[in-house]
Amino acid sequence: MNINVSENNGVSHGKLARILVVDDDEAIGKAMHIGLTKTGYIVKWVGNSKQGMELISTWRPDVVILDYEMPEINGLTFCQQVRLWSQTPIIVLSVRSSDEDKIELLSNGADDYLVKPFNMNELIARIQVELRHTAHSAVAQSCDAIFTFGDISINFEQRQVLQKNVEVHLTPNEYEVLKYLATNAGRVVTHQNILRAVWGPQFEDENHYLRVCIAQMRRKLEPEAERPRYIVTEPGIGYRLKINY
Amino acid sequence: MIHIQKIKKSITNELNIFSDYITNTIILQSHKIVNRNNAVWKQIRDAVVYVFVYTLLIALLRWLLRQILPHSTVNISFLYLLGIIWLASTSRQFSSGLMSVLAFLTYDFFFIKPYYLLTIDDPSEWIFLSTFLMISLIITFFASALHKREQYAVDSQMRTAALYDLSQQIAAVHESSTLFPIVTAWICKQFDKEGILACSLWIPTETGDLAIRSIAYSQQNQNPTLAQFDALHYQKNAATSLVSTKQTRMIEQDLSTYFIPLRNQCGILMVSGTPMIEQLLTFVPELDTRQTLPAKQFATICDQIALAIERAALQNEAMHAATLRESERLKDALLGSITHDLRTPITAIQTAASSLTQTDINIDKTSYIILIEKIMGSSRRLENIVANILTISRYEGKAKAAPRSLYPINDVVATALDELDTSGQLQDHRIVIDIAEDPLEAIMDHVAIERVVINLVENAVKYSPPKSKITIKAVSNTESQVIIVQIYDEGVGIPPTELQAIFKKFYRLDQELPWLPEKIAKGTGLGLAACLNIIQEHQGKIWAENLPNNGSVFNFTLPVK
């Protein structure tokens, strides 16, 4: 099955997707409300965390957009509490937080993050990624035998990577990293997660291994390795396989 | 209950400490008395031995002379006198006096008729003998005075050298916290002989209480329990003498403790020791010839300490004032810059937005897009200014530095260029990346270094004509353990005299840029200053150079280890 992101714009399981925006800033909240509604989602915007949590259980949104700096309950606690009873994807918005904060968020229930000020198109792309992931985990995962992005396609059954129908030779580790990125396509994945999945838990802190590996993959797959288009760096956090190119 | 126990414990402790103090002192003193008695006996013994031996020698000489020249009447009395004077002049006052008298008697006894009796037959011998005694006593007196003066000179020289040494040490220290231990240790070492056992400095804190800033013990004072002496016990006395600016004395058994207020109430010097220390402290305010040398020195050192403390305080104040002035200047400059530079994009946004909200004007699609792009561009400009102000204030405010780690410069460059690309700033230029290795890693706070790359590339874009090339190079220099990042442009270059000034805060080069409609570049004078702050904080270097043909290159280094 080929994945084309623009296909299911705003649609999840054949109905309009519901987006819950939790942000105490009125200007940003309203702007998001307008922007997302125009894109074709059903949007609800609330200005406090408690209401946000209530709506997750009662209104059942498909994606939650959460401001990190909320007055009562901060983003991290919000994610931790929601994860106790819900798997709804959460995208966190933050002004400037340290790498450690972001990593902590990602390992405590947040699915992605976006730094303010952000571009509306970027937010919509992230929402679509989350919607696609939910759709896929709902259906069986095995149907993804072939994954395509840009001019590259990965055949998981044959462990084969093709670029413009020409086979690209990847080392086993490179293939595993690419596969891990592809299964999380569009989402940020942390260094630790990739290292743990590919090299093993004891290599969790060996960032250098991963950097060397990614550099080689970029040389093989990217049209311009110095300005990566597919395997982009998430500064200080990890990598993201960009699929809307 | 616990509280009471604590108090009890502290009282017992204190008693223990003081009983130790006292035993220590008494042992020391009795030791000194024995020493003194020994010295007197030694002098008497020496005098007797010397006179006896010398008399024997003279007797032998006379006997020899008589054997060789039996008929001559040689008077050996002057020879005897000479020897005794020489002995007396080299000895100390007491023993040389004793020697004179002894010699007088011996000479009479052995060499003047009638022999072996203390009587004299010849009246002329009487005159000779009394002259003999007078001369030897006078010589003794002068010699010992000379002795004393010489010793005084040596002592004074040594003390002056020690004082000079201390003042050198004090002058080299700028922090008062390192100054105090030097001073107390010096006092204990220098006045060890005068009976000082412990010395401490009390300095008023900001809240007005006195706090012990340093404490030292003399080498005689080997009892380790003394190190735990209770400050509270002395607190009241110290405070009293600071307020009254008069010495307070506290005597407990054999232990004397003095609280000496330093000049201008800048602190209290506390000395404890045997009652002997009193002679150190009876100094009159003016230096006086009657004072003993150690007392003079002590007075001088008290003044020196006060001066050093005051100097340190003044230095602190001066530094504080300088920081204030600098932040004041920064604020002024910032306000100036804000009115000038922040208003421009704000005005642009407001104008564009108000045009869009005007309902009575029909805006065509192209103008609509242009207006929106104006808003986007201006808000990005604002964001950039805010980011640079934040960087500068973060690094100058010495806020806790972001954690640094080994990070690939390749990723930083790519992220920075993506950032610039999304704001459309690179569309008119050709960007070439030339990084020697991938990954090329250095120790950095990647967010800050990304800001440096953004600012430098932005600068290159701003000062070079459209369609020109901007090259970003990075190589590692294994010799000096750094990586060097270079941003080349083909722009207007920098006037050679301004190559360093451009990194100053709010410094702007109003260079003419022919390809711009307004001909003059816009800038806040913050970008390069922020770069300088960041790179210096990273222990790196940043500098600009002009290229031989045209354009310039901005270089910065980052440590690899």
Describe the structure.
The complex is a heterodimer of chains A (245) and B (561). In chain A, 39% of the residues lie in helices and 22% in strands. Chain A is built from 8 helices and 14 strands. In chain A, strand 9 and strand 10 form a beta hairpin. In chain A, helix 6 crosses helix 8 (207-221). Chain A is globular, with a radius of gyration of 18 Å. Chain B is of the alpha+beta class and 561 residues long. In chain B, a hairpin with a 5-residue loop joins strand 1 and strand 2. Chain B has 12 helices and 12 strands. The radius of gyration of chain B is 44 Å and the shape is elongated. In chain B, the strands form 3 sheets. Chain B has a 5-stranded antiparallel beta sheet with strand order 2-1-5-4-3, sandwiched between helices. A 5-stranded mixed beta sheet of chain B has the order 7-9-10-12-11. A two-stranded antiparallel sheet of chain B has the order 6-8. Chain B has 3 domains: 2-158, no CATH class; 175-315, Beta-Lactamase (2-Layer Sandwich); 401-559, Heat Shock Protein 90, CATH 3.30.565.10. The A-B interface holds A 98-100, 117, 119, 207-208, 211-212, 215, 218-219, 225-228, 232-233, 235-236 and B 379, 383, 402-403, 406-408, 410-415, 417-418, 422, 433, 435, 438-439, 441, 446-447, 450.
List descriptors.
heterodimer, A: 245 residues, alpha/beta, Rossmann fold, Arc Repressor Mutant, subunit A, 5-stranded parallel β-sheet, globular, B: alpha+beta, Beta-Lactamase, Heat Shock Protein 90, 5-stranded mixed β-sheet, 57% helix
